[in-house]
Amino acid sequence: MAFDAYGELKPSGVPAWYRRPSDSFTRTCPFSPAAKNEDYLATNLYPLAKHQDAAIGRFQTAYVGYVAEEEYRLQGSSGGMVTWVATELLRQGLIDGVAHVIATKEPQKEGRYFRYRISRTVAQVQEGAKSRYYPIELSEILQTIREVPGRYAVVGVPCFIKAVQLLRNEDPLFRERIRFTLGLFCGHMKSARFVESFAWQMKVPVHQIEQVEFRHKDPNRPANWYNAQLTLRDGSTINRDWWHLKDGDWGAGFYMNSACNFCDDVVAETADISFGDAWVEPYSSDGKGTNVVVVRSTVVEELVENAIQEGRLQLETVDQKFVEQTQAAGFRQRREGLAYRLTWPRKGVQPCKRVKPDAETVAKHRKTIYRMRSFISAGSHRVFSFARLLQKPELYFKWARMVAAVYHGLAYHQGKFSEMRKRFGELKG
User: Fold this and answer.
1) Which pLDDT value is given to residue 70?
2) Where does the record place the Coenzyme F420 hydrogenase/dehydrogenase beta subunit N-terminal domain (predicted)?
3) Best label site of 21, 133, 307, 353, fewest CB within 10 Å?
4) pTM, entire model
5) CA–CA distance from 256 to each of 71, 186, 195, 381, 386 (Å)?
Protein backbone atom coordinates (compact mmCIF):
# COMPACT_ATOMS: atom_id res chain seq x y z
CA MET A 1 0.00 0.00 0.00
CA ALA A 2 1.32 3.44 -0.90
CA PHE A 3 0.11 7.05 -0.83
CA ASP A 4 -1.18 8.39 -4.14
CA ALA A 5 -1.13 12.00 -5.35
CA TYR A 6 -4.19 12.80 -3.23
CA GLY A 7 -2.70 11.45 0.00
CA GLU A 8 -4.83 8.30 -0.01
CA LEU A 9 -3.51 4.77 0.45
CA LYS A 10 -3.86 2.58 -2.65
CA PRO A 11 -2.58 -0.86 -3.65
CA SER A 12 0.83 -0.63 -5.29
CA GLY A 13 2.10 -3.40 -7.55
CA VAL A 14 3.29 -4.40 -10.99
CA PRO A 15 0.76 -4.05 -13.87
CA ALA A 16 0.36 -7.82 -14.16
CA TRP A 17 -0.78 -8.00 -10.54
CA TYR A 18 -3.58 -5.49 -11.19
CA ARG A 19 -4.84 -7.53 -14.16
CA ARG A 20 -4.81 -10.87 -12.37
CA PRO A 21 -8.31 -11.96 -11.27
CA SER A 22 -8.62 -13.20 -7.69
CA ASP A 23 -11.66 -15.00 -6.32
CA SER A 24 -10.27 -14.69 -2.78
CA PHE A 25 -9.86 -10.93 -3.08
CA THR A 26 -13.37 -10.64 -4.51
CA ARG A 27 -14.73 -12.39 -1.41
CA THR A 28 -12.70 -10.41 1.14
CA CYS A 29 -12.75 -6.81 -0.11
CA PRO A 30 -15.41 -5.06 2.05
CA PHE A 31 -16.68 -3.04 -0.93
CA SER A 32 -16.78 -5.92 -3.41
CA PRO A 33 -20.28 -6.52 -4.85
CA ALA A 34 -19.62 -10.26 -4.40
CA ALA A 35 -18.63 -10.08 -0.72
CA LYS A 36 -21.08 -11.07 2.01
CA ASN A 37 -22.81 -8.04 3.50
CA GLU A 38 -23.03 -6.89 7.11
CA ASP A 39 -26.40 -8.55 7.72
CA TYR A 40 -25.08 -11.96 6.66
CA LEU A 41 -21.91 -11.62 8.70
CA ALA A 42 -23.67 -10.40 11.85
CA THR A 43 -26.27 -13.17 11.66
CA ASN A 44 -23.54 -15.80 11.64
CA LEU A 45 -21.39 -14.04 14.23
CA TYR A 46 -24.18 -13.23 16.70
CA PRO A 47 -27.06 -15.65 16.03
CA LEU A 48 -28.43 -15.36 19.58
CA ALA A 49 -28.40 -11.54 19.78
CA LYS A 50 -31.31 -10.21 21.83
CA HIS A 51 -32.10 -7.32 19.51
CA GLN A 52 -32.11 -6.60 15.81
CA ASP A 53 -32.47 -3.13 14.32
CA ALA A 54 -32.33 -1.79 10.77
CA ALA A 55 -29.96 1.01 11.76
CA ILE A 56 -27.53 -0.54 14.25
CA GLY A 57 -27.89 -4.24 13.38
CA ARG A 58 -27.89 -7.15 15.81
CA PHE A 59 -26.86 -6.46 19.41
CA GLN A 60 -27.09 -7.57 23.01
CA THR A 61 -27.08 -4.26 24.90
CA ALA A 62 -26.44 -0.57 24.22
CA TYR A 63 -25.07 1.91 26.73
CA VAL A 64 -24.19 5.56 27.18
CA GLY A 65 -21.54 6.75 29.61
CA TYR A 66 -17.83 6.69 30.32
CA VAL A 67 -14.97 4.98 32.13
CA ALA A 68 -14.91 5.86 35.83
CA GLU A 69 -11.65 4.01 36.43
CA GLU A 70 -8.27 5.78 36.40
CA GLU A 71 -7.54 8.34 33.65
CA TYR A 72 -9.06 6.59 30.64
CA ARG A 73 -11.73 9.24 30.10
CA LEU A 74 -9.32 12.17 30.15
CA GLN A 75 -6.78 10.41 27.92
CA GLY A 76 -9.30 9.60 25.18
CA SER A 77 -11.19 11.81 22.75
CA SER A 78 -14.50 10.63 24.17
CA GLY A 79 -15.42 8.57 27.24
CA GLY A 80 -12.35 6.30 27.22
CA MET A 81 -14.27 3.10 26.48
CA VAL A 82 -12.24 1.86 23.49
CA THR A 83 -8.94 1.84 25.35
CA TRP A 84 -10.56 0.44 28.50
CA VAL A 85 -12.09 -2.58 26.71
CA ALA A 86 -8.84 -3.30 24.84
CA THR A 87 -6.78 -3.20 28.05
CA GLU A 88 -9.38 -5.22 29.97
CA LEU A 89 -9.19 -8.01 27.40
CA LEU A 90 -5.42 -8.04 27.98
CA ARG A 91 -5.72 -7.92 31.76
CA GLN A 92 -8.12 -10.83 31.86
CA GLY A 93 -5.87 -12.97 29.67
CA LEU A 94 -8.39 -13.22 26.85
CA ILE A 95 -5.92 -11.93 24.25
CA ASP A 96 -2.16 -11.61 23.78
CA GLY A 97 -2.15 -8.45 21.67
CA VAL A 98 -4.25 -5.56 20.36
CA ALA A 99 -3.98 -4.31 16.78
CA HIS A 100 -4.76 -0.60 16.86
CA VAL A 101 -3.64 2.74 15.44
CA ILE A 102 -0.86 4.72 17.11
CA ALA A 103 1.11 7.85 16.28
CA THR A 104 4.42 7.16 14.55
CA LYS A 105 7.57 8.10 16.46
CA GLU A 106 9.33 9.75 13.52
CA PRO A 107 6.62 10.84 11.06
CA GLN A 108 8.92 12.83 8.80
CA LYS A 109 11.18 9.79 8.40
CA GLU A 110 8.37 7.24 8.05
CA GLY A 111 6.31 9.39 5.70
CA ARG A 112 3.10 9.08 7.74
CA TYR A 113 1.78 10.28 11.08
CA PHE A 114 -0.14 7.15 12.12
CA ARG A 115 0.01 3.40 11.54
CA TYR A 116 -1.30 0.13 12.95
CA ARG A 117 0.68 -1.63 15.65
CA ILE A 118 0.16 -4.72 17.80
CA SER A 119 0.43 -3.73 21.47
CA ARG A 120 1.05 -6.38 24.12
CA THR A 121 0.99 -4.34 27.34
CA VAL A 122 -1.54 -2.03 28.97
CA ALA A 123 0.87 0.91 28.65
CA GLN A 124 1.30 0.27 24.92
CA VAL A 125 -2.46 0.05 24.35
CA GLN A 126 -2.97 3.36 26.14
CA GLU A 127 -0.67 5.03 23.61
CA GLY A 128 -3.40 4.47 21.03
CA ALA A 129 -6.01 6.62 22.78
CA LYS A 130 -7.59 9.54 20.83
CA SER A 131 -9.19 9.78 17.39
CA ARG A 132 -7.13 9.41 14.21
CA TYR A 133 -8.66 10.97 11.08
CA TYR A 134 -5.89 9.72 8.85
CA PRO A 135 -5.45 6.96 6.24
CA ILE A 136 -4.07 3.70 7.62
CA GLU A 137 -4.02 0.07 6.43
CA LEU A 138 -3.91 -3.43 7.88
CA SER A 139 -1.35 -5.30 5.77
CA GLU A 140 1.57 -5.12 8.20
CA ILE A 141 -0.32 -6.27 11.28
CA LEU A 142 -2.18 -9.00 9.38
CA GLN A 143 1.18 -10.36 8.28
CA THR A 144 2.34 -10.31 11.90
CA ILE A 145 -0.80 -12.15 13.02
CA ARG A 146 -0.15 -14.75 10.31
CA GLU A 147 3.46 -15.24 11.38
CA VAL A 148 3.20 -14.95 15.18
CA PRO A 149 0.81 -17.35 16.96
CA GLY A 150 -1.44 -15.81 19.58
CA ARG A 151 -4.89 -14.43 20.34
CA TYR A 152 -5.56 -10.95 19.01
CA ALA A 153 -8.13 -8.15 19.11
CA VAL A 154 -8.44 -5.72 16.20
CA VAL A 155 -9.69 -2.14 16.55
CA GLY A 156 -11.00 -0.44 13.42
CA VAL A 157 -13.63 1.54 11.56
CA PRO A 158 -16.63 -0.36 10.08
CA CYS A 159 -15.11 -1.27 6.71
CA PHE A 160 -11.90 -2.50 8.39
CA ILE A 161 -13.85 -4.70 10.80
CA LYS A 162 -15.94 -6.04 7.94
CA ALA A 163 -12.73 -6.82 6.00
CA VAL A 164 -11.37 -8.70 9.03
CA GLN A 165 -14.58 -10.73 9.36
CA LEU A 166 -14.54 -11.57 5.64
CA LEU A 167 -10.90 -12.64 5.99
CA ARG A 168 -11.77 -14.80 9.01
CA ASN A 169 -14.42 -16.51 6.86
CA GLU A 170 -11.85 -17.09 4.14
CA ASP A 171 -8.84 -18.19 6.22
CA PRO A 172 -9.07 -20.52 9.26
CA LEU A 173 -5.79 -19.17 10.66
CA PHE A 174 -7.24 -15.67 11.07
CA ARG A 175 -10.49 -17.13 12.36
CA GLU A 176 -8.52 -18.83 15.12
CA ARG A 177 -6.14 -16.01 16.01
CA ILE A 178 -8.39 -12.94 15.79
CA ARG A 179 -10.63 -13.48 18.82
CA PHE A 180 -12.22 -10.04 19.28
CA THR A 181 -13.11 -7.06 17.11
CA LEU A 182 -13.62 -3.53 18.45
CA GLY A 183 -15.43 -1.21 16.06
CA LEU A 184 -15.44 2.58 15.84
CA PHE A 185 -18.48 4.53 14.63
CA CYS A 186 -17.44 6.31 11.46
CA GLY A 187 -18.50 9.32 9.41
CA HIS A 188 -15.86 8.97 6.68
CA MET A 189 -12.13 8.59 6.13
CA LYS A 190 -9.90 11.62 5.48
CA SER A 191 -6.85 11.77 3.24
CA ALA A 192 -3.37 12.67 4.52
CA ARG A 193 -3.83 16.12 2.98
CA PHE A 194 -6.08 17.04 5.92
CA VAL A 195 -2.98 17.37 8.10
CA GLU A 196 -1.21 19.44 5.47
CA SER A 197 -4.21 21.75 5.31
CA PHE A 198 -3.98 22.17 9.10
CA ALA A 199 -0.34 23.19 8.67
CA TRP A 200 -1.10 25.64 5.88
CA GLN A 201 -3.87 27.32 7.86
CA MET A 202 -1.85 27.46 11.08
CA LYS A 203 1.14 28.79 9.10
CA VAL A 204 3.65 26.13 10.11
CA PRO A 205 5.94 24.11 7.80
CA VAL A 206 4.60 20.58 7.26
CA HIS A 207 8.07 19.07 7.70
CA GLN A 208 8.22 20.51 11.23
CA ILE A 209 5.16 18.60 12.49
CA GLU A 210 5.97 15.79 14.91
CA GLN A 211 2.53 15.04 16.36
CA VAL A 212 -1.05 15.62 15.27
CA GLU A 213 -3.96 15.68 17.68
CA PHE A 214 -7.23 15.97 15.79
CA ARG A 215 -9.38 16.39 18.90
CA HIS A 216 -7.44 18.13 21.65
CA LYS A 217 -9.53 17.68 24.80
CA ASP A 218 -10.43 20.55 27.11
CA PRO A 219 -12.85 19.46 29.87
CA ASN A 220 -14.03 23.06 30.21
CA ARG A 221 -15.38 23.20 26.65
CA PRO A 222 -18.20 21.23 24.97
CA ALA A 223 -17.01 17.91 23.52
CA ASN A 224 -18.30 18.83 20.06
CA TRP A 225 -16.06 21.93 19.88
CA TYR A 226 -13.28 20.13 18.02
CA ASN A 227 -9.82 21.63 18.43
CA ALA A 228 -6.80 20.56 16.36
CA GLN A 229 -3.31 20.70 17.87
CA LEU A 230 0.03 20.36 16.09
CA THR A 231 3.24 19.66 18.00
CA LEU A 232 6.40 20.83 16.24
CA ARG A 233 9.97 19.56 16.35
CA ASP A 234 11.01 22.22 18.84
CA GLY A 235 8.31 21.04 21.25
CA SER A 236 6.00 24.01 20.71
CA THR A 237 2.31 23.52 19.99
CA ILE A 238 -0.25 25.42 17.96
CA ASN A 239 -4.03 25.02 18.13
CA ARG A 240 -7.00 25.98 16.01
CA ASP A 241 -10.70 25.26 16.49
CA TRP A 242 -12.15 23.31 13.60
CA TRP A 243 -14.89 25.92 13.26
CA HIS A 244 -12.24 28.42 12.18
CA LEU A 245 -10.65 26.07 9.64
CA LYS A 246 -11.85 26.52 6.10
CA ASP A 247 -12.35 22.76 5.72
CA GLY A 248 -13.29 22.11 9.34
CA ASP A 249 -17.00 21.34 8.83
CA TRP A 250 -16.98 17.55 9.06
CA GLY A 251 -20.33 17.15 7.33
CA ALA A 252 -19.13 18.96 4.21
CA GLY A 253 -16.93 15.97 3.36
CA PHE A 254 -13.56 17.58 2.62
CA TYR A 255 -10.92 14.95 1.70
CA MET A 256 -13.44 12.10 1.91
CA ASN A 257 -12.35 8.82 0.37
CA SER A 258 -14.66 7.99 -2.55
CA ALA A 259 -15.41 4.55 -1.08
CA CYS A 260 -17.06 6.27 1.90
CA ASN A 261 -19.81 7.43 -0.44
CA PHE A 262 -20.79 3.77 -0.84
CA CYS A 263 -20.73 2.56 2.76
CA ASP A 264 -23.98 1.81 4.63
CA ASP A 265 -22.48 0.82 8.01
CA VAL A 266 -22.26 3.66 10.54
CA VAL A 267 -21.80 1.72 13.78
CA ALA A 268 -19.51 -1.21 12.85
CA GLU A 269 -22.30 -3.77 12.79
CA THR A 270 -19.94 -6.75 12.54
CA ALA A 271 -17.81 -5.87 15.60
CA ASP A 272 -18.09 -7.62 18.98
CA ILE A 273 -18.42 -4.18 20.54
CA SER A 274 -18.51 -0.75 18.91
CA PHE A 275 -18.09 2.79 20.17
CA GLY A 276 -19.10 6.29 19.20
CA ASP A 277 -19.58 9.76 20.62
CA ALA A 278 -22.89 10.59 22.30
CA TRP A 279 -23.74 13.55 20.06
CA VAL A 280 -26.94 14.51 21.87
CA GLU A 281 -27.50 16.76 24.86
CA PRO A 282 -26.55 16.84 27.64
CA TYR A 283 -23.63 14.61 26.62
CA SER A 284 -22.31 16.64 23.67
CA SER A 285 -21.76 19.62 25.98
CA ASP A 286 -19.75 17.58 28.50
CA GLY A 287 -16.13 18.40 27.72
CA LYS A 288 -14.89 15.27 29.49
CA GLY A 289 -16.44 13.13 26.73
CA THR A 290 -19.15 10.48 26.64
CA ASN A 291 -19.36 7.22 24.70
CA VAL A 292 -22.32 5.45 23.22
CA VAL A 293 -21.56 1.71 23.14
CA VAL A 294 -23.16 -1.22 21.31
CA VAL A 295 -22.28 -4.72 22.57
CA ARG A 296 -22.88 -7.83 20.44
CA SER A 297 -20.60 -10.49 21.93
CA THR A 298 -21.89 -12.23 25.07
CA VAL A 299 -18.32 -12.53 26.37
CA VAL A 300 -17.76 -8.77 26.06
CA GLU A 301 -21.20 -8.06 27.51
CA GLU A 302 -20.29 -10.03 30.66
CA LEU A 303 -16.99 -8.18 30.91
CA VAL A 304 -18.76 -4.80 30.68
CA GLU A 305 -21.59 -5.72 33.07
CA ASN A 306 -19.15 -6.93 35.72
CA ALA A 307 -17.24 -3.64 35.50
CA ILE A 308 -20.47 -1.66 35.87
CA GLN A 309 -21.31 -3.59 39.03
CA GLU A 310 -17.82 -2.93 40.37
CA GLY A 311 -18.15 0.81 39.73
CA ARG A 312 -15.33 0.85 37.18
CA LEU A 313 -17.64 1.90 34.33
CA GLN A 314 -20.34 4.57 34.57
CA LEU A 315 -22.77 3.28 31.94
CA GLU A 316 -26.56 3.36 31.56
CA THR A 317 -28.51 1.14 29.18
CA VAL A 318 -30.23 2.81 26.22
CA ASP A 319 -32.33 1.58 23.30
CA GLN A 320 -31.54 1.47 19.60
CA LYS A 321 -33.41 4.73 18.93
CA PHE A 322 -31.09 6.59 21.29
CA VAL A 323 -28.01 5.18 19.53
CA GLU A 324 -29.43 6.13 16.14
CA GLN A 325 -30.23 9.64 17.39
CA THR A 326 -26.61 10.18 18.49
CA GLN A 327 -25.49 9.44 14.91
CA ALA A 328 -28.42 10.99 13.05
CA ALA A 329 -26.31 12.87 10.49
CA GLY A 330 -24.25 9.77 9.72
CA PHE A 331 -27.35 7.68 9.11
CA ARG A 332 -28.83 10.29 6.78
CA GLN A 333 -25.61 10.29 4.75
CA ARG A 334 -25.19 6.49 4.73
CA ARG A 335 -28.82 5.53 4.15
CA GLU A 336 -30.92 8.27 2.53
CA GLY A 337 -27.89 9.89 0.87
CA LEU A 338 -26.54 6.54 -0.31
CA ALA A 339 -29.91 5.58 -1.79
CA TYR A 340 -29.81 8.77 -3.83
CA ARG A 341 -26.14 8.39 -4.86
CA LEU A 342 -26.82 4.86 -6.10
CA THR A 343 -29.07 6.34 -8.79
CA TRP A 344 -26.23 8.40 -10.26
CA PRO A 345 -24.62 6.99 -13.43
CA ARG A 346 -21.15 5.57 -12.79
CA LYS A 347 -18.55 3.54 -14.63
CA GLY A 348 -16.63 0.53 -13.36
CA VAL A 349 -17.64 -1.61 -10.40
CA GLN A 350 -21.31 -1.27 -9.51
CA PRO A 351 -21.88 -1.28 -5.73
CA CYS A 352 -24.26 -3.84 -4.26
CA LYS A 353 -25.61 -2.39 -1.01
CA ARG A 354 -28.34 -3.16 1.49
CA VAL A 355 -29.80 0.26 0.68
CA LYS A 356 -31.86 0.30 -2.51
CA PRO A 357 -31.41 3.06 -5.13
CA ASP A 358 -34.01 5.79 -4.61
CA ALA A 359 -34.29 9.23 -6.18
CA GLU A 360 -38.01 9.63 -5.65
CA THR A 361 -38.56 9.88 -1.89
CA VAL A 362 -35.53 12.08 -1.12
CA ALA A 363 -36.54 15.72 -0.65
CA LYS A 364 -35.22 18.19 -3.22
CA HIS A 365 -33.37 20.17 -0.55
CA ARG A 366 -31.61 17.02 0.71
CA LYS A 367 -30.63 16.11 -2.85
CA THR A 368 -28.92 19.48 -3.21
CA ILE A 369 -26.97 18.89 0.01
CA TYR A 370 -25.85 15.42 -1.12
CA ARG A 371 -24.77 16.80 -4.49
CA MET A 372 -22.83 19.60 -2.81
CA ARG A 373 -21.15 17.21 -0.39
CA SER A 374 -20.07 14.96 -3.26
CA PHE A 375 -18.73 17.97 -5.17
CA ILE A 376 -16.70 19.08 -2.15
CA SER A 377 -15.34 15.58 -1.53
CA ALA A 378 -14.05 15.17 -5.07
CA GLY A 379 -13.04 18.80 -5.53
CA SER A 380 -11.01 19.11 -2.34
CA HIS A 381 -8.63 16.37 -3.55
CA ARG A 382 -8.11 18.04 -6.90
CA VAL A 383 -7.93 21.67 -5.82
CA PHE A 384 -5.58 20.96 -2.90
CA SER A 385 -3.36 18.86 -5.18
CA PHE A 386 -3.17 21.73 -7.69
CA ALA A 387 -2.42 24.32 -4.98
CA ARG A 388 0.18 21.99 -3.48
CA LEU A 389 1.86 21.54 -6.86
CA LEU A 390 2.10 25.32 -7.32
CA GLN A 391 2.86 25.90 -3.62
CA LYS A 392 0.07 28.47 -3.47
CA PRO A 393 -2.16 27.65 -0.48
CA GLU A 394 -4.32 30.70 -1.13
CA LEU A 395 -5.74 29.03 -4.24
CA TYR A 396 -7.12 26.25 -2.08
CA PHE A 397 -8.20 28.61 0.70
CA LYS A 398 -10.36 30.71 -1.61
CA TRP A 399 -12.04 27.64 -3.09
CA ALA A 400 -12.57 26.02 0.32
CA ARG A 401 -14.05 29.21 1.80
CA MET A 402 -16.52 29.48 -1.05
CA VAL A 403 -17.75 25.88 -1.05
CA ALA A 404 -17.80 25.68 2.76
CA ALA A 405 -19.95 28.81 2.91
CA VAL A 406 -22.36 27.47 0.31
CA TYR A 407 -22.59 24.14 2.10
CA HIS A 408 -23.17 25.89 5.43
CA GLY A 409 -26.07 27.87 3.99
CA LEU A 410 -27.62 24.82 2.34
CA ALA A 411 -27.21 22.41 5.25
CA TYR A 412 -28.10 24.65 8.17
CA HIS A 413 -30.07 27.63 6.82
CA GLN A 414 -32.27 26.36 3.97
CA GLY A 415 -30.01 27.92 1.35
CA LYS A 416 -30.15 31.54 2.60
CA PHE A 417 -27.62 33.62 0.70
CA SER A 418 -27.13 35.96 3.66
CA GLU A 419 -25.94 33.04 5.79
CA MET A 420 -23.56 31.91 3.05
CA ARG A 421 -22.09 35.41 2.84
CA LYS A 422 -21.77 35.59 6.62
CA ARG A 423 -19.95 32.25 6.81
CA PHE A 424 -17.68 33.22 3.91
CA GLY A 425 -16.59 36.25 5.91
CA GLU A 426 -16.07 34.22 9.09
CA LEU A 427 -13.65 31.91 7.29
CA LYS A 428 -11.47 34.72 6.00
CA GLY A 429 -9.21 34.89 9.05
Assistant:
1) 84
2) 63-142
3) 21
4) 0.95
5) 33, 12, 13, 8, 17
